[in-house]
Amino acid sequence: MDSFKLFNWGLLILTFGLLIFLGYLSSKMMKRGDEGGFLVAGRSLGAFVGAGTIVATGFSGWGFMGSPGVTYQFGAIEVLGNFFFAPAMMIAVLYFARFLQRKAVDMGSNTIPEYIAQIHGGGTMGRVVQGVAAFITIILLLVFLTSQIKAVGLLGASWLGIELNQSASLMVGVIIIYTMLGGLAAVAWTDTVMVCGMALAAVIIVVQLVTSVDLSSWEASLNAIDPELLNPTTGAHYGDHPGTVFLVLPYAFLFAAVLPFMAIRFLAFKPDVKLHKVGIYVAILGALLSLIPLVGLYVRMQMPELADPDNAMPVYLENFMHPALQGIITLFIIFAMKSTANSLLHTVASATSHDMRLALFKDSISSATLALFINRAAVLGLGIVALLMMLYAPPFMLSWLGILGTGTLLASMIGPVFISTFWQGSPWGALVAMLAGFGTSGYMMLFADVGWLIGPLTGCVVSSACYIVVSLLTPRPAFQKLSV
């Protein structure tokens, strides 16, 4: 093992120790047996930590590994699409978070499926809705988690000089440990540390890109390879028309506002948090991370025959960065991917241990300590399941699998989570909307050649229509609008 590999292992061990220590500290914040502390961090997140965990989770593995690969394959249109995530997340924080936060505090909701059940009246039908929401969340986020584990495993393997399965097992093992210890508080704290490293990595990468090649030569080289890379006549993976890329803005807004692993952060804010501060932090961090896909264009210029587009970032680091800088930046990128993986694992475990338990066996556990033990056991069990799914999954493109999971979940949840904030539907409306969104988006992503966003957004339209129509035809619970 050469000196740089030893340097990388040293960095990894030090940061693993820091992450586990943060998990231990966050576990001390929870009262003994405090399930709410595990699920929503005791509603203790401030402005910077809240913004840090939102941005880290939203960009992370997709931003650092998936989007450079997509940019390598399809060109600059992905750079534009990636940029829309920062303003979309800021809008979600400024104009949606307070509604969701106040309602959840009012009802005592500790997860998004529980929020859906409670806002639609609770009772027996509410348990059915909660169970279905939890089941859909588990299935689809396990799909997304599989892509995140593969991403972090691929990068870690080349960085440390080990096999993919060894790298993935190592990374998932540490995520399991600190998430089990501190729940959402540990996830949020570690995310905040990670996003600072991610932002620094983005700055270093952009400086290297713009100082190592003349921009006019860069443009000429890409046009010589394929004029579509810089001047697309279609929307490439987004759809047939170039304008379909602008659909990323509403998609990214709903991504931040509706998806359970993102929206749970709004439930965890302090009641008196200043959301304009959160929005400013989100905008700054998001803008920096939106520049990362440029790596794909740079590598396409330098190595136009790359066999696997998803290797654009590892190839870039290996060939165009000093080994010491490569090690540090790779560590920050691993941070990025872990920040989404831990959020997904926490959300899937919460849906399994809390929501499915309440849906199937309401009030079956009277001990809060036992409930917390079950939460932590679910983190361990589902972390192992996700690792096995990654090891035995067929080949896939990271970004496509991520959108299959998140886009279909978004289509399932838009009515019960987003529309219900402004217009109260019925439990039957929520149930039908979730199933319709799941079926529509899933089918279009798997079997229809319509682009990566058309399927989920069509699912959102179908799901929303079902939510409203079925709710108008069935009894609705009383609704009290909360002021901002």
- Measure the end-to-end span: 58 Å
Most strands sheet: none
Which fold name is given in CATH as the topology?
Answer: Sodium/glucose cotransporter
Task: Give me the number of helical elements.
Answer: 21
Secondary structure topology:
Elements: H1 3-29, H2 35-40, H3 47-58, H4 60-74, H5 77-83, H6 85-95, H7 97-107, H8 112-119, H9 123-160, H10 164-212, H11 215-225, H12 248-258, H13 260-268, H14 275-289, H15 294-302, H16 312-320, H17 323-360, H18 368-392, H19 398-422, H20 427-447, H21 454-473
InterPro entries: Na/Glc_symporter_sf, Na/solute_symporter, Na/solute_symporter_CS, Sodium:Solute_Symporter
Catalytic activity: L-proline(in) + Na(+)(in) = L-proline(out) + Na(+)(out)
Membrane topology: Multi-pass membrane protein
Overview in brief:
The chain is mainly α. The protein contains 21 helices and no strands.
Notes on the structure:
It holds the Pfam family SSF. The chain crosses the membrane at residues 6-25, 37-59, 79-97, 128-149, 169-188, 195-213, 248-268, 280-300, 370-392, 398-419, 428-446, 452-473. It is found in: Cell membrane. It is a multi-pass membrane protein. This is Sodium:solute symporter. 78% of the residues lie in helices and 0% in strands. Helix 1 (3-29) packs parallel to helix 17 (323-360), helix 6 (85-95) crosses helix 12 (248-258) and helix 9 (123-160) runs antiparallel to helix 17. It has a single domain (3-395), classed as Sodium/glucose cotransporter. Mean pLDDT is 87; it is low at 480-484. The chain starts with a helix and ends in an 11-residue tail after the last helix. The chain is mainly alpha-helical and 484 residues long.
